[in-house]
Specification:
alpha+beta, Double Stranded RNA Binding Domain, four-stranded antiparallel β-sheet, globular
Length: 92
């Protein structure tokens, strides 16, 4: 199953990138450059979604429209695609 959630990144004064998912509570990523931060965001979202889906009472958050996000100057929005392969009996 594929999930796509927007992530917001900003560059730190040191040149690294930090990001967060407005829709995934406490889901963050960072990296030495934007590409690294994007890779780490994908892994963070994968972990977050996997934990949420393991809960029998899960209720995934709705996906924000990037135009509705409150951004600061210099913020970069990227949609992060997460592909989770379910195994037989995953929902039992």
């Amino acid at each position: 199953m594929k999930f796509i959630y927007p992530a917001v990144f900003h560059q730190t004064p040191e040149g690294a990138y930090k990001g967060y998912f407005p829709d995934l509570e406490c889901c963050y990523a960072e990296g030495s450059d934007l590409e690294d931060a994007l890779d780490n965001a994908n892994a963070a979202a994968y972990d977050w979604l996997t934990l949420e889906l393991d809960d029998p009472d899960y209720d995934l958050p709705r996906v924000s429209d990037p135009q509705d996000l409150h951004l600061k100057e210099g913020d970069i929005v990227r949609n992060i695609l997460v592909n989770i392969k379910f195994y037989e009996g995953w929902d039992e």
